[in-house]
Amino acid sequence: MSDFVLKSLDIKNFRSIRGKIHAPLDAKVVLLHGENGAGKTSILSAIELALTGKVQSLERADPSYEKQLLHRSATEGSVLLRTLSGISEQSFNATLNTTGAQSITALDDMRATFFRERAFLPQALLGQLLQIYQDAGHDATSPLAQFVAKLLGLDRLDALEAGLKPLGDVRNVRKNVEGWLTAENEKSRLDRLLSDQRKARETLNEQVLSVVDELASLCAELELSVEVREETLDEVATSLSDDKDADAFSQLTDQQRKLASIRREIEAAQTATGSSVGLITTGADEASKEFSRWEAKYGDRVRSLCSRVQAVLSNISFPSDPEQFAEAALVRLSIEQQHFSDRVTQARADIARHATAQDERDVALRQRSTIDEEVVLLSSSAGSLGSALSELTSFITDETCPVCDRNFTEISSDPLSAHVHDKVRRLSASAERLLTLGRTRSEVQVTIERLDRDIEAIAARSLGENDLANLDRQLAVIDVLINELNSILDVLQLGGRLRAAEVAAHRAVANAQTHHASLAAAHDTLNDFALSVHALGLGEGESFESAATRLEALLLAQATRFETRLSLRRKAADQIATIRSAIRQRLEVDARISADDWSWQSANQALERAQVLREQGNTIRSAVDKVRSAIIRREFNDRLNLVWRDLFVRLAPGEPFVPAFRIPESSTQKLQPKLITEHRDGGESGGTPGAMLSAGNLNTGALSLFIALHLSVPRDLPCLILDDPVQSMDDIHIAHFAALLRTLSKEHGRQVVIAVHDRQLFEYLKLELSPAFPEDSLLTLELSRGPRRDSVCISQRFSFKQETALHAVS
């Protein structure tokens, strides 16, 4: 945009400008004049608002300045700026209302920043410019740092330095480099994991060695010839799996059980043969005689009673033992007796209840008939008629009937109202009686229905006279049998005991004979068993007990020895399983160690490569810092300071102290320039410009700095807008300043817009900046306003005119 030119400005109700004004701006130099408060600063602020959307000087003074942009007498306003870029025209505008300003079209952020900082110098900023740069921070967003980047074209170096800056501190590297912290954490985790796994492997290896030593000791106790090592576990397991000891122990266990069985048989035979067979036989004969005598005395009576009981309880089978028969018969007869007694009692109760229920039903039927007869005599409409007459009484005011209009005194001496009230009472009593009879009849009907159901149920389950007589006869027979059984119960119990004694005696005789024969055979069996287990046979005179005890001790000793060997074999097998499990775990740990070690190597190599890159980045960063530092020192000291010095000396030729920037010789990664003053004759530098320069020369230093900054950067916007910059200047300063403006306009191609309030200065500058060649141009804008009228802007354009007077003289 090197051909960017301001063309015209239209303002409506903006700040001190009331109404509408049009200001042409399409000239090389635009001089703006007006009294204080006429609107000069408002016009320049309108240009800034249209181009950037903000008014920076007002924003510094009041953050809520937008509410004050609209003229206080208006409700809306606007700013429209037209520009030329070559042959194309572009408009920038903003609207105003009571709440603030809204930018419609403006420059992009980069050119808007350039305009605010390098093209427009507000009056309020002139006295603050040096202080702003003196107090500027050292970060990349400070005005001075942005200027340096723009001036020197260090954007790429700054970006490279900013991008490489986190590499200086590994904590920043962890935050900014994706995967660095993850790789470090992974490496630390793998370090701890590998350490734990190696410790676990050492523990497993020690466990394997320890258990192998224990297994070798067990194999030595078992007298196994195999060598016990980690590699020979299969051979050791094969030797331990030999079933000889197990088979021997199983055979020995069978022999112990067999000896115990033989011993129990001998003890049983000895116990059974403790009494002589002759005595047992004599006792059996005596028991048979006792039972025969009882049978001869009571047998017929008992058999007869049993037959009668069987006839009554034909569906039940009874035991043959007399005592058991009596007990079972009494239980069953008692049950039958209770059953028949209950049926007889129920039958007689039903007969009595049937007669009583019939009598009660007859009474209820007669009561229902009486109620029905009385209900027929009562009128069913008595209640309704009583209600109607009751309502009619309110219409009776004399002795004339309100229904038929007849005088009641003609038929009765009583009052009509008393007659009607009496009639109402009678009808009400009849209605109440009707309700009572209805409820009573319902209750009587329920009673009749209940009695009918009772009579039907009794008739359905009642027995006839023959059936009742048969029940009485059967009950009598059962009573007789129970009494008879109770009378001979002691006889039956005696017979049961005698029969049981006879049976037991005969059984004892048979068992004694059997055990006597078994005892003789047990001697031979025990002797054969002793020989089968490779022990001495039964000696002459040796008792069964001593022989069995001797054999049992022998077998127990052998069993203990084999049990110990089997226990050692099981323990050895468990240890082999433990060793194999530990070996498997060790192999798994080895596999994990190998995999994790590979991961650790990968993470470590990644970190090493990243560290190399970090060192290379730091090397590049150091090189960039050195190059950038050299460029900044060279450009500041040899270019900017030189331009600033030249401009300041031209504007203030009598001032011995010249302001300048001092750049430190050390690294400029953090830009910290310092404003100083240098003496023209050399020597040590002085203090800050504020301490060394007068007020006029201080403004001159700020103005020359602004123009130097403007000239030091590429010409993005070739316009220079100055708001009354000649405050506190004397005539010499003004003359030099006019010459400087003429140079900027005529030689450097800048469009200069300058506002002044002094009339003489305005006329002087109009003369000094008048067009000097055909393409040159000058516009003057004069602002005025009154207390009750709108602002007025009068423009006048001056073009180049060839001087002819000197030609005529020559």
Automatic annotation (TrEMBL):
It holds the Pfam family AAA_23. InterPro entries: P-loop_NTPase, Rad50/SbcC_AAA. Signal peptide: none annotated. Residues 8-129 form the Rad50/SbcC-type AAA domain. This is AAA family ATPase. The lineage of its organism: Bacteria, Pseudomonadati, Pseudomonadota, Gammaproteobacteria, Pseudomonadales.
